């Protein structure tokens, strides 16, 4: 483009300039254009550009244009806008600033000044123009002295750049632009109000994440401390206020900012940063709060920690010592333990405190002073200080082992290991000692000293605190990686195995991690791994089970499968060798007999064949895709795994293979295979490990029948059945056919049924097991059923009637079920105890339970169990004694029946969409039976007991029975209590697992309350309290129209009242009896109070809380009755209150919100009493002194709750009303007796105390 065309467009008009930019903008290179011009021609450009920029800037800022203007778009009729004009001017100026020889004419300088002046006035929608204008100002500053007056071009630019970093979408590049302009910050007058805007932005940058996470941002924050001395205080105060609340990741950044600003500072800046910033943080940290959600000390310690770790820089150690010296030493000896703890942490973090410029003697004296302080603080009265000192000593020894004298090292370690490690006052101190030693072991020079000291801690594996045991195992894991110290020399392996069997999962996982390289070294040959496995089984079988259950997570699936096959092959080989030996013995006997007869044909024995088969089987088991023999051996052998030299090494590597006579060892090996398969089952079921699973199934299926024939002991058979449960049914069909027969042949008390039941479930044969159990129980109950005495059918049962009615509709199903191919004959003797054990196992095992609920035979089982209620009824009534069944068996049958019925009802209700209706039917059935049988028995009500219940309308009672009295010592009453406890336990579980709704919960609460009101209430207190607890928990989940309300507490309140009345009746007797009752009831009441408060806070309706209403009414009734009997008690101590009232008020007073809720219900109680007594007054029956005493009874809770700082204005208002009424009665001549007038005066004085102001008569 020709030069004259450009000049013509610039000098013609703004419209021509814009047209030039639009048409030739991409082709036009302003830098080349300006570079080719002479200085005179450049001046011509700036002279033409200045008026264009001035006019456009004026119109853009004022919002006015020449001629007709569209203010929304800033466009004129001519077809251009001011933004385009300014954008073009800014582009030309920016290109000029990039030239080597800048020709700064007055017109260019004025244009740059215009750009700077309107930078902050540009509309927000012109953000690109604003950014370009800022870039021009930045370029002017970067040109330095070439641009005269550049100081006037930075104020608005700084404001824009800093503000830009806080805008949405800001990047690290924006922070870098501010860092590039940092020199311009020195031009600001920080004492003038004109700099307030930029100062506020700079202070905000201290809490802006973009600055705290970028390198340029951190450097800029440090640079700010050198701008002005007065600004340092503002910066420090901003950071100081932010420290307790900022994220932890930023705390170290603040420390870095302080340290870098200190290194850059000098003169007054250095003194100010040291004394008013860093030292202020140190002093504040010593006296800061240690606990709470926003505790200041941990945050301040992290900030100072960055400075403490910079001692390698010159002058840092001297600065730290000089700033701590005025206050740290005395802070270590103050009375406040929190201050001492803070000071200990800081002293240990900054250790060693010294001045490098001091003489050697002065440094040694100062170090010895610190060692002496450490020794003193190790015996501090505060466990917190002791534990912190121990940890600090560990860190100090780790970092400065070479500098600390050996005598001091041994002295400190002796105190820690021999004394503080056995600190009985605090487990935190014991934990700190062990953690401290783990830290010290990081220094290799300490290993020689600690080699003989660590075994002194071996008893800590059995410490009573789980925290100590975990810390000790973490120490052993550290020791395991040290060559010169063996972990099994610190703690013997038998002790580790003993803890593995009984300890928590957190401890057990660490033990497994510690022993995995000893008992399951992946680099060792597979034969050696099997040998170590057998050794572990011999040492502790329970620990072996736990070990192999968790070791699966440490090994790849292919390795686990290969190891399983090796162990299984070992068992198979032992069985095969045993068979060969037995056959050889038999053959020798035959040879002797034939030789005695004079001959006999020679036949080849099976020994060669069996041995060949075992070898082939072993080789096949260890081959296959994905299972290869590892060639590399463990270079350290068994010793690296943790065996003592000369002790276990020979046992593991050279032990003889097991034989058939080692029954326990073979059973343990099979259990290991089962455990590993169970842990790997989900992995093997995935498609990528299909080949591993098929290989495992094939190898096990091949020889499983042989093991079943040879291993007949209970443990081995159980393991084999569990192993068979992992195999497909068709591959073990012979075993499937014999399992039910084996199950039926077990003894009454046998415990070997679990594996067979699990296997039958996995083979989808659970129905056969249910059928067998059903026949056993039905036969037992039929034998135990009482026979009719006078007329046939006189002992008929409603249960039998219901069953007969149901048989009409399910006759075909029953015929089909009975026509199954039974493997057990009907003549098998019934085994009720075994049947109940099997049922309990199936109900507890999730897989068995779900499969059982779907089986048709389960309905017949439920009907058979239902007969136990009839047998129990006859037994408890004394009409007949069941034959063949003990009372405990009948009670177990009732428990199993209810649990089974509830599970099936929940399944059926969920399938049919009827929710809790089916569950209610089952519960109602049992509830009606208990109300007709158990409740009269516990009440001692013969008439009610002899009346025919709904379910027993056809039962005739003996008319000549005499009236009995209920007594807990009566055998039938005792048994009735046990049955009731069983029913309460099962129904409580139904509430707990969510099988009940609000309506059914209310029915259960009313039903349980009836038992609480009987003479057996104290005996049933524990199960009743558990039910109340679960009802309160269920109320939290109850909703009405999607809203939680306190009305869901009605069932809980229904049961709470009789339980509290029961406690009240006991409290009138011996205090020891009340303590026993309250120890059972207090936990449930506390839970009810907590749930009530939670629901009250969530509820949107101002309903009275039923549970609090019950609690308040009963408490105040007891107090009113007590004060009525002795009016002077209102002035006595709270210890003289009724026992129950005192216990309830203690629970209420624990929380301010519960106190407020109690007082609001107290007001309602007083008002209700007023209405009742006012009604009596109208009838002429008011006893005014009695009413006054009720108000006096309220003084105890008021005094207790007000002393705790609780609000009681509403309750005070009620008592005030009582005082006014009493005065009115006195004025009318009623109640002149001095006996109650004194109480009235005491009431008024107490009211003055509560209100802190006099009450005038």
From TrEMBL:
Alphabetized InterPro entries for the sequence: ARM-like (IPR011989), ARM-type_fold (IPR016024), Condensin2_G2 (IPR024741)
Residue span of region Disordered: 577-662, 786-826, 945-974
Biased composition (Polar residues): 960-969
UniProt GO BP: mitotic sister chromatid segregation
GO CC list: condensin complex; nucleus
Short name of any one Pfam family annotated for the protein: Condensin2nSMC
Biased amino acid composition, Basic and acidic residues: 634-654
Composition bias, Acidic residues: 578-587
Source species, domain of life: Eukaryota
Compositional bias ranges of the Basic residues kind: 592-607, 804-813, 948-959
PANTHER family assigned to the protein according to its UniProt record, in alphabetical order: CONDENSIN-2 COMPLEX SUBUNIT G2 (PTHR16199)
Name under which the protein is recorded: Condensin-2 complex subunit G2
Source organism of this protein record: Geodia barretti (Barrett's horny sponge)
């Amino acid at each position: 483009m020709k030069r004259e065309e450009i000049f013509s467009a610039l000098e013609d008009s703004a419209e021509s300039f814009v047209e030039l930019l639009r048409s030739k903008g991409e082709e036009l290179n302003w830098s080349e254009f300006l570079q080719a011009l002479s200085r005179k021609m450049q001046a011509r450009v700036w002279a033409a550009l200045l008026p264009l920029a001035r006019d456009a800037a004026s119109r853009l800022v004022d919002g006015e244009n020449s001629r007709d203007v569209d203010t929304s778009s800033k466009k004129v009729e001519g077809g251009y806008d001011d933004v385009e004009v300014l954008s073009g001017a800014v582009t030309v100026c920016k290109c000029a600033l990039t030239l080597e020889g800048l020709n700064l004419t007055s017109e260019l300088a004025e244009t740059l000044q215009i750009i700077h002046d309107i930078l902050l006035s540009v509309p927000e929608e012109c953000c690109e123009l604003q950014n370009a204008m800022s870039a021009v100002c930045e370029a002017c500053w970067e040109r330095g002295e070439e641009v005269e007056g550049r100081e006037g071009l930075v104020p608005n630019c700084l404001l824009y750049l800093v503000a830009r970093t806080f805008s949405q979408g800001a990047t690290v590049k924006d922070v870098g632009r501010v860092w590039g302009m940092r020199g311009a910050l020195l031009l600001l007058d920080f004492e003038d109000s004109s700099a307030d805007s930029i100062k506020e932005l700079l202070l905000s940058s201290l809490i802006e994440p973009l600055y705290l996470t970028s390198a340029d941002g951190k450097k800029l924050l440090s640079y700010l401390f050198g701008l002005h001395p007065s600004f340092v205080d503002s910066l420090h105060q901003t950071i100081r206020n932010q420290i307790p609340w900022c994220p932890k990741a930023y705390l170290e950044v603040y420390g870095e900012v302080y340290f870098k600003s200190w290194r850059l500072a000098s003169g007054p800046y250095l003194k100010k940063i040291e004394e008013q910033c860093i030292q202020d943080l140190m002093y504040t940290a010593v006296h800061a709060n240690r606990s709470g959600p926003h505790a200041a000390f941990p945050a301040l310690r992290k900030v100072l920690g960055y400075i403490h770790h910079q001692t390698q820089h010159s002058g840092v150690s001297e600065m730290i010592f000089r700033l701590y010296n005025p206050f740290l030493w005395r802070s270590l000896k103050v009375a406040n333990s929190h201050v001492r703890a803070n000071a200990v942490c800081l002293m240990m973090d900054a250790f060693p405190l010294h001045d490098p410029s001091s003489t050697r003697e002065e440094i040694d004296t100062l170090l010895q002073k610190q060692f002496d302080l450490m020794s003193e603080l190790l015996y501090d009265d505060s466990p917190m200080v002791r534990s912190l000192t121990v940890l600090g000593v560990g860190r100090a020894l780790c970092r400065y082992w070479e500098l600390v004298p050996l005598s001091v090292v041994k002295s400190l370690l002796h105190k820690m290991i021999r004394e503080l490690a056995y600190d009985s006052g605090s487990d935190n101190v014991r934990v700190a000692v062990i953690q401290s030693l783990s830290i010290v072991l990081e220094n290799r020079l300490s290993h020689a000293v600690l080699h003989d000291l660590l075994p002194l801690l071996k008893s800590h594996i059995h410490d009573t605190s789980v925290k100590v045991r975990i810390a000790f195992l973490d120490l052993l894991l550290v020791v395991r990686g040290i060559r010169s110290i063996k972990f099994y020399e610190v703690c013997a392996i038998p002790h580790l195995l003993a803890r593995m069997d009984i300890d928590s999962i957190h401890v057990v996982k660490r033990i497994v991690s510690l022993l995995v390289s000893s008992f399951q070294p992946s680099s060792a040959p597979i034969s050696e791994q099997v040998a170590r496995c057998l050794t572990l089984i011999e040492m502790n079988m329970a620990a072996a089970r736990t070990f192999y259950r968790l070791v699966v997570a440490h090994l790849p699936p292919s390795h686990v499968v290969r190891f399983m096959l090796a162990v299984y092959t070992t068992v198979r080989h032992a069985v095969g060798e045993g068979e060969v030996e037995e056959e050889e013995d038999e053959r020798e006997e035959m040879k002797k007999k034939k030789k005695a007869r004079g001959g006999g044909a020679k036949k080849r024995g099976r020994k060669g064949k069996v041995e060949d088969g075992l070898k082939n089987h072993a080789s096949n088991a260890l081959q296959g895709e994905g299972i290869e023999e590892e060639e590399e051996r463990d270079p350290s052998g068994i010793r690296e795994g943790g065996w003592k030299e000369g002790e276990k090494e020979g046992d593991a590597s050279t032990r003889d293979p097991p034989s058939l006579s080692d029954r326990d060892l073979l059973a343990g090996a099979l259990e290991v295979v089962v455990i590993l398969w169970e842990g790997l089952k989900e992995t093997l079921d995935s498609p990528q490990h299909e080949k591993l699973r098929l290989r495992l199934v094939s190898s096990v299926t091949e020889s499983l029948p042989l093991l079943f024939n040879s291993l007949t002991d209970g443990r081995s058979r159980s393991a084999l059945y569990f192993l068979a449960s992992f195999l497909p049914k068709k591959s073990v069909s012979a075993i499937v056919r014999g399992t039910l027969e084996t199950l039926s042949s077990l003894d009454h008390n046998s415990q070997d049924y679990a594996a067979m039941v699990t296997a039958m479930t996995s083979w989808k044969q659970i129905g056969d097991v249910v059928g067998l159990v059903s026949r056993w129980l039905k036969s037992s109950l039929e034998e135990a059923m009482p026979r009719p005495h006078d007329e046939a059918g006189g002992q008929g049962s409603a249960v039998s009637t219901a069953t007969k009615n149901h048989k009409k509709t399910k006759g075909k199903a029953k015929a089909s079920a009975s026509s199954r191919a039974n493997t057990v004959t009907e003549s098998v003797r019934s085994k009720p105890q075994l049947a109940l054990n099997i049922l309990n196992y199936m109900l507890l095992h999730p897989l068995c339970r779900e499969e059982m609920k779907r089986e048709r035979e389960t309905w017949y089982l439920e009907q058979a169990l239902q007969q136990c209620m009839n047998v129990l009824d006859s037994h408890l009534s004394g009409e007949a004694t069941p034959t063949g069944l003990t009372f405990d068996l009948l009670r177990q049958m009732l428990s199993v029946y209810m649990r089974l019925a509830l599970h099936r009802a929940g399944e059926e209700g969920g399938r049919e969409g009827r929710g809790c209706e089916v569950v209610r039917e089952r519960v109602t059935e049992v509830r009606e039976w208990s109300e007709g049988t158990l409740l009269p028995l516990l009440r001692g009500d013969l008439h009610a007991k002899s009346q025919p219940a709904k379910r027993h309308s056809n039962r005739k009672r003996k008319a000549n029975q005499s009236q009995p009295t209920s007594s807990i010592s009566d055998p039938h009453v005792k048994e009735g209590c046990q049955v009731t406890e069983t029913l309460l336990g099962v129904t409580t579980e139904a509430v707990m697992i969510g099988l009940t709704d609000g309506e059914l919960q209310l029915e259960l609460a009313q039903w349980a309350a009836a038992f609480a009101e009987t003479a057996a209430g104290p005996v049933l207190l524990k199960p009743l309290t558990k039910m109340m607890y679960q009802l309160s928990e269920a109320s939290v989940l109850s909703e009405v129209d999607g809203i939680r309300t306190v009305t869901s507490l009605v069932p809980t309140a229904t049961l709470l009242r009789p339980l509290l009345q029961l406690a009240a009746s006991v409290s009138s007797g011996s205090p020891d009896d009340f303590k026993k009752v309250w120890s059972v009831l207090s936990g449930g009441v506390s839970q009810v109070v907590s749930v009530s408060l939670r629901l009250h806070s969530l509820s949107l309706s101002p309903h009275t809380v039923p549970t609090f209403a019950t609690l308040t009414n009963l408490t105040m009734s007891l107090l009113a009755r007590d004060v009525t009997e002795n009016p002077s008690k209102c002035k006595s101590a709270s210890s003289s209150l009724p026992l129950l009232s005192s216990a309830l008020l203690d629970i209420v007073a624990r929380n301010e919100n519960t106190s407020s809720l109690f007082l609001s219900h107290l007001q309602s109680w007083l008002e209700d009493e007023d209405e009742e007594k006012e009604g009596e007054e109208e009838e002429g029956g008011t006893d005014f002194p009695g009413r006054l005493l009720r108000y006096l009874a309220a003084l105890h809770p008021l005094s207790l709750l007000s002393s705790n700082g609780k609000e009681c204005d509403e309750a005070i208002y009620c008592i005030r009303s009582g005082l006014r009424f009493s005065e009115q009665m006195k004025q009318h001549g009623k109640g002149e007796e001095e006996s109650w007038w004194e109480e009235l005066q005491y009431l008024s004085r107490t009211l003055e105390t509560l209100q802190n102001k006099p009450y005038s008569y």
